[in-house]
Every structure is written in C-alpha cells, then in structure tokens.
Please model this.
Amino acid sequence: MDTMEDRNAKLLVDSLERFLVKIFGKEFIESEYNKLKTYAPRGKPEELRYLIAPNVHRAGKWYRLLETIKEQEYSFDLRFSTDVEEFMRLLLFAHGLDLLIRSNTLPLQRKEIVGALRDRGRFESLMYETMIASNYASNKFHVKFPELFGERVDIYAERGEIKVYVECKTLKKNEKYVDIAVEIGSWLNEKKVNVLLDITLPRTPKKEDVKKVSDLVKKVLEKGEACKEGDIKVSFTELPEYLCKPFQMSISNPENVEFILSSSYIRFSAKGPEVKEPKLIILRNPNKYEEVSRRLKDALEKADDQLKTVRGRKVIYIDASEVIGRPTLQIPELISLNTVMYSKLEAFVRSWLENHVTIDAVVMTEPRLYLDPFGIPCAVALESKTISSYIAPGWTILMNIIPMPKEASPKALVNMGIEMAKRGYYSLALGYYRKAIEIKPDLKEAYNNIGKLLTEAGRADEALKYLERALELDPKYAPALINKGIALAGLGKYTEALESFNEKLESR
Model:
C-alpha cells in the first residue's frame, strides 16, 4: 500500500480504501457496506445510525467512513467523536497489518488468516493483536500468531535469546451506552439543540433503558430543568451555536464516565478555529471502577491460564481504552477532562501481579491522536504503559537537566520558575520550584506555584498535595486558597471549592 506517512488527504484516503479492498476482497467489502444501508432511517439520512450496526463487519464501517470523507471532498472534518476514533483505529490497523504482510508474518495466501480477517467476531481481537505484533516486528523481532493455527497463545516474538509469549485482551464498552447516546444524539440533531448533557445511570443499561432514558432527556430539555427520576439523573448546560477558545467546559468526576459522544462542525474564521452546533452527551456509572476492575481481573486470569503451557517471558496486553481511556473529541482544546481511572487500575494490576509471579508484565495501551498547532491531525500512536510488580509506577522517567545559577537564593529560583512558566517551559519551571524547596523547605510560594502548574496540566489531584502544604505554612495565603479552589472545581468538588474561595474572601 502507499506510504502511511503521506499527509495528503486524497492520497491517504484512496490508499486506505485500496488497502481494505486488497485485504478483505471487493465482494466482501461491498456486501458489508450494503448491509449498512438497512440501518439508515427513512427520510433524511442520519449518520449516527450507522454507529449501532451490530451485524456489520468493522471493515464495512471503515469503508463507509472513507466514502463519507470522499463525499466531503476529502475533508477530515469528521462530525462525530466515534468517527474520529474509528479513523484512528483504521490507521493503526492498516499500518500494523501492512508491516506484517511485508515481513511475511501474515501472508494473505493462508486460508486461516483470510478466514480470521473476515470473521466478524474474531476480527475484533485480531485487530488489536495486529497492532501489538507490528510493534515487535518493527523492533526486529521474528513474530508468529500461534492461535491462528490451533495453539492457545496469541503472539510469539523472538529476537536472539529473547523469547516472548503474549496474550492480548480487550475490554469493550457496553453497547447500550452507545445506543442511548445515538438515540439522544439523533433527537438533538433533529431539533438543532446545542447542549452538554450529563446523565447518570444507576447500573449498566439494558435494552428497555434506551427509550426510558431518551424520553427523560427530552422531558428535561423541554422543561428546561434538571431532573432525577428514580435513580437516573439528568442535568444539562446550554451551549451557544458557536464555541471559540475563551469558552471553557469542564467535565467533573471523569472516573465514572462510561461513554461520551460529541457532535459538531469545525470552521475557521478570522478568530481562529470555531466549533459550530456543539453537542456533548456524557453517560456515567457510579459503580464503574468496581465493574471495570472485575472485568479486568477476569481478562487477566484468562490470559494467565492461556500462558501456563509455555516457557519464556510472558506478557499480557490489555486494551482498556474503550472503558477507561481519554475520549477522543473534536474539540479537545475546549474541554477539561482529567481521568484517574488509569492510576487506580494500575495499582489493581500491580497487586494482581504480586500474586502471579510467572507473568513478567501487563501492558495497558491507549490509542492517541496528536494535533498540530492548527488542530489538524498529524500523528496517531498506540501508547503503552508497562506495569510489573517490581517496577516503580509511572508512564515515563523525567530527568531535568537545568543550569541552576550558582548561589541563587530560593526566592530567585521561584522568580525564574515563574518566568519559565510564562514562556511555556513547564518542566523547567517545576525544576526551579523544586530546587527552591530543596534549599528552603518552608517556602510557601514554591509549593503554591507547583500546585498551580499541576492543576493547569490536568493533574489537580496531585496539585492539591502541594497547595495543602502551602496552606499548612500559611493558612491565610490567598494565592494558595484560590488555586486550591480551582483544583477542587476541576475535580468536580464544587462545595469544597466554594469553601476555599470563601476562606480567601474572609482572609482579606
């Protein structure tokens, strides 16, 4: 296929289309594509309906997505957040499978491979396995797919004396969340209502809940008042027809968010990028951590059982991005969304590994879309977070090499940190603040500034530790009271945030 690095929209889309036809066959693709038409409602087509086509192979949906982009004259102005996510997955899959085909790891002449690709149920797991295997192949490992040929293990990778056995598991979101979002989203589009909807459900929804929740939302919006009916809560924030950068939205308690569907158009004006007709539907589950950790444990136990028959290094890969990852939105610069679910589940996995010593590591992966300064997609990555029982937690190791002025006073270091933060050099700023604390441990200004920086970086829970320390040193220190209020508000703790702001007013 054509190089995936080519950023010309027409070349990229046409290349992906040819790739799908080559891999799945023209007749198969057209058959799946035609099935999608049965999901389109009568009258004006509503693209959202294509998201809930359960009996259509993902390749057919991808082909439909590419056709839509072509109809828009090769514009990547994808309207729905789920379309953005699908385009990311298509790029990752195409890149990975192309590499494996060229290295003869997955020759298309083998009937087992063609059968797995066309099998709708098997393809969902094969898609993820392909992404993981291609990473090993690109790092000069010789890769095999034992399970495709009757064995129990998904991937075997070998380079020199290193032999790695890999099991891949994917945690899928409950499709009824998607059904509810689609039902509501279709109605919002029909009525041209621009709104941020926040819906809390008491449990994982069932078929009968789709209409029930949809009817309640319609009633809430028609009355213009938030509502609680039984254990279902619905609140909303009206949005203007156009959003631009000064308008900020913050999603509280992101750890219990099950699914987000966003819909909007993007346009460019003299003011810069603008979002037209924004709609954001948030579905929550208060028991999400308990449910996800239970499913994660089941997946880990199953993978461990499958790896018991082999000897060598054993690694389990988990794609949990659908249930705990950061949602991909078209308007990320306007939305503050912090997630603590990964850190909680990382601790859960670490504890599990302590009792399963034959497993070397668990790797949690998350697809990420990177945008250039103009908001145009420039790279897609499948990021990995490796967890083991004997490696310290964290995504990365950060080492700052900062030229510290000789004999600089702590106050001077804080001032230098402030200047670095203004210029956007946040790591440098943190380095100066921490050095100031090292010299003078009771410097409240340094603790406050670190808290402010961490809050702005989306790490409000971490920021509070530094802000609390500043207030221990000076309970009436106004900047720390303000920044503590901002951090608490970012975590959805509005009552506590208000208390902090009130303390600041009383300290005047």
Notes: The two ends are 67 Å apart (CA to CA). Residues 1-7, 394-400 have pLDDT under 50 and may be disordered. Residues 81-102 form the longest helix (22 residues).
